[in-house]
Design a protein that fits this description.
Number of helices: 4
Shape: elongated
Structural class: alpha+beta
Order of helices and strands: EEHHHHEEEEEE
CATH architecture: Roll
Distance between the termini: 12 Å
Strand content: 35-45%
Number of domains: 1
Helix content: 10-25%
Number of strands: 8
Largest sheet: 6 strands, antiparallel
CATH topology: Thiol Ester Dehydrase, Chain A
Length: about 160
């Protein structure tokens, strides 16, 4: 497994994950459970909305980002996500959009309390097939060090 440990995630380190094709069924199914706004669950009503068509909810787009994070070309040894900063949705996600993830490490520091890990802050972007950013956020991640012995790897 090609893994990105804390020592590898230097400032400027970049990561990518491809791809997730969004379907109308997925948008509707997610929204029926978690965000049942008319423009997320009803194609006819969505056409009459300000969005002029079906769109994925923000919670759904963030969930897709997490899914894509588990499909990075080089898996990160994430112990925990420590929050989300500056989350913004800048374009709607629609049926048949193809999304991918990019990330860049903005800061990196060793943990002050545990020597087997460090904290890196990443800027992540979810981008569609038209190269439009649909979601952007900054997220601090706690990463295991190479010889930590921590079993923190994605099973995806």
């Amino acid at each position: 497994m090609n893994t990105c440990y804390f020592e590898d995630a230097h400032v400027g380190y970049t990561t990518e994950a491809y791809e997730h094709k969004v379907t109308a069924k997925e948008i509707i199914d997610f929204a029926l459970s978690w965000d049942p706004m008319p423009f997320h669950i009803d194609e006819a009503l969505a056409k009459e909305s300000v969005y002029k068509g079906l769109t994925a909810s923000g919670a759904h787009v963030y969930a897709i980002m997490i899914k894509l994070a588990h499909k990075q070309q080089r898996k990160m040894a994430v112990i925990a996500a420590l929050g989300v900063k500056n989350m913004s949705f800048s374009a709607p996600v629609r049926p048949d959009d193809i999304l991918y993830l990019t990330g860049v490490c903005l800061t990196s520091r060793e943990s002050k309390s545990k020597s087997d890990r460090g904290i890196c802050e990443f800027e992540f972007k979810v981008i569609n097939q038209h190269r439009e950013v649909v979601l952007q956020l900054t997220q601090p991640l706690m990463l295991a060090k190479k010889n930590s012995g921590l079993d923190v790897f994605s099973r995806a």
